[in-house]
Specification:
Length: 129
């Protein structure tokens, strides 16, 4: 069971790494978000930072097989999914710059990874019960 928890921790780490690659101004994300108002811009950034930090905590909790690790990771996976889906759907954040093809591809991959993460840790939870 410990090997499966290590694999789950690595999948969470992969998800947070894929999110970090998409930082605005980075190698993939080149859209202009200057029209977002301060509270919305900083609120969204704070949410993404907390999602990243919580993901690292979940990695550790999975490694030590903490009793709430699976539930926390399921929540994180759902939040990743929501972040990517609302962006792919053009709901939020809105930018006058169109999403590039590499960014679209990365977000589709990241959405798939969020679904995989949820299914994987849910299966672990059922096997461990």
């Amino acid at each position: 069971m410990q090997n499966i928890m290590i694999m789950a921790s690595l999948v969470v780490f992969l998800n947070v790494t894929l999110l970090a690659i998409l930082v605005p101004g980075g190698p993939i994300e080149n859209r202009d978000f200057s029209k977002l108002k301060g509270v919305v811009f900083w609120g969204f950034n704070l949410f993404l930072i907390l999602l990243g930090i919580t993901s690292f905590i979940a990695c550790y909790l999975l490694l030590i097989s903490h009793s709430h690790a699976i539930f926390i990771t399921q929540i994180i996976a759902v939040l990743y999914f929501i972040v990517y889906i609302i962006d792919l759907a053009g709901i939020f954040p809105k930018s006058p710059t169109k999403m590039s093809k590499p960014l679209t591809l990365f977000e589709i991959i990241n959405t798939s990874m969020a679904v995989f993460l949820f299914l994987f840790v849910t299966a672990i939870g059922h096997v461990g019960s």
